Amino acid sequence: MTSAARKLDGEKRPVSATGRFDVERVRADFPILHQKVHGHPLVYLDNAATSQKPRAVIDAITRYYEGSNANVHRGVHFLSENATEEYEAARLTVQEFLNAAHSREIVFVRGTTEGINLVAQTFGRAQVQAGDEVLITAMEHHSNIVPWQILCDEKRARLRVASINDQGELLLDEFANLLGPRTKLAAVTHVSNALGTINPLKRMIEMAHSRNVPVLVDGAQAVPHMKVDVQDLDCDFYTFSGHKVYGPTGIGVLYGKATLLHAMPPYQSGGDMISSVTFEKTTYNQLPYKFEAGTPHIARVIGLGAALQYVDGLGMENIGAHEHDLLAYATEAVSAIPGVRLIGTAKEKASVLSFVIEDIHPHDIGTILDQQGIAIRTGHHCSQPVMERFGVPATARASFAVYNTRKEVDALVRGIEKVRQVFA
Question: 229 with 176: CB under 8 angstroms?
Answer without folding.
Answer: no
